[in-house]
Give the backbone structure.
Amino acid sequence: MDLRFGDSKPTDEERAAVDALLGPPESSWEGAARDETDAGDLRWARGGREARERRDLLLPGLHALNDRVGWISEGALDYLCRRLTVPPAEAYGVATFYAMFSVRPRPATVLHVCTDLACTTAGSSELCAAVEERLGPESGVQVERSPCLGLCERAPATLVVRAGKSARPGVPPLGEFEDEAVQAESGGPGAAAPGDGNGKGRRGRNTLHATAVCAPATPDTAVHAATAPESAPAEPAPALAVPQTSTPDPTLTLLKRIGTVDPTSLDDYRAHGGYTALRRAFDLGPAGVIREVTDAGLVGRGGAAFPTGRKWQATAAQPDHPHYLVCNADESEPGTFKDRVLMEGDPYALVEAMTVAAYATGAHKGYLYLRGEYPRALARLTHAIAQARTRGLLGDDVLGQGYAFDIEIRRGAGAYICGEETALFNSIEGYRGEPRSKPPFPVEKGLFGKPTVENNVETLVNVLPILTTGAEAYAAIGTRTSTGPKLFCVSGSVDRPGVYELPFGATLGELLTLAGVRDNLRAVLLGGAAGGFVRPDELDIPLTFEGTREAGTTLGSGVVMAFDDTVPLPRLLLRIAEFFRDESCGQCVPCRVGTVRQEEALHRIAGRTGAAAADDIALLREVGRAMRDASICGLGQTAWNAVESAIDRLGAYE
């Protein structure tokens, strides 16, 4: 790929996909773009600065092409680059950064089979082999082994994505709605493509874009979903991922509406206390909201545990404008799925919480960066935002208070590193999702170089009970230094996997008892792939940030994965190493090289113990220290954590 435009031309479908997003080009521009003599010349450009300021539409443009055709051709990329005046080489670097895109021809249907930790222990390797055998090249389906799909409570999991026309531009694809009213409104399942009597036909012509989640999957169900995604069974209700909702539980705060409130109904949400917090926020004023959040002791729930009130205050105090709010909904840590459950089961709560946060920090535009592997969450949030706009809860005059705020969803495309806040900003702006050096910090120069507050989904929804019950009541939950409720994602060797809500301070043993931990427990992984293992005799560890730190491990984002003695530990460690090698953005040498060396060493000692593994373990320690000390971001800094804890705490390879 060159810095200059080439001779490749887009197909009519590719051109239509881009134009549906960007609008039709000017006729003079269109003629120039089709002119062979100008095709390789970058000296002309229509739109100039105005077009360059739309570079943030590069990622949505790549999604539009991938959704419509199934891959991104050179001609399609060239056309998108001309529309946005982005050098093709830069756009190619962005397109090849994300796992969900392909710049090589592939079938219209892709079956993603999760092979990460929870699914590996549930037999995903055998599932993948069986599916690959049955879906040969003639099937028109490409099988891809995928990192964690965020469906750990239903392992093993698969996700089907079929390229084709959207039933209506900007509306999530087939297979994502359960509510019939929403289906009818948006041209959901069963809707035909414009000009097509039955929605059938050749790929990309009359076939509708479709997604289907199949979990837990068997070879039969996975093959059926891949060959007929529009007829795949609907996903189970989000409440089934929350075992505590099986019986009324008055102690629930963050999960209380899941399974009780219709997630597609704004009226039902308001009947159960929705938008009470926003009304109180307007009564308190921005400074009052920040004071309540600070007094409540809320800290970030993504793993860093930075005080939320301090972050909000620092952003609000910046004289540079505009300010931005970014919700990080790109939870990609293996074993994490709590944010998915919140977005699917209580989407209006996130919309309300984002509005409160934006009001407090002086932001008028919010971006919700959502995992590309979460189709139902995308559908629910798209619908919720549209309903909120219609009812005056988003837009130019929120609740008649003279405050303007709106939310735009941006889909990720399969990059774990984009969970890092500055990598996420780069992704939204249309660049490779690589972390930035700090300082300057996001509160000073974040998205588009402006003051930005970034929080994840769980952190934001915690703001609602702070405002409805008061900071003092909220701080009374949990411990003195870890206040409020916490969500934990429990999976692996347990009878009742799912999302659990407990106050900070509950012990690991109490949580595993709720989840029905099985006999013969071998180890528990806290914090996901970036976390650490603990032994079965350490279940009295208090689940707080300070408690896990004192125990020499980490709470992280709340992942708790239990493994019994039937799970081969070296295989798990190798999968963790493979994950970090794949997900390293490659920007800094310690991580780019270190993750490869770590995986190589674990391959060599997979079947060794004792003295035979000593040299490679020494090498692992040296590489791990280098990554921890010198990597630019948390990915490299934590890539050695789980392996180190397995060696030191569990006696792996002894």
The two ends are 49 Å apart (CA to CA). The longest helix spans residues 276-296. The CA atoms of residues 52 and 512 lie 52 Å apart. Confidence is low (pLDDT under 50) at residues 35-45, 168-205.
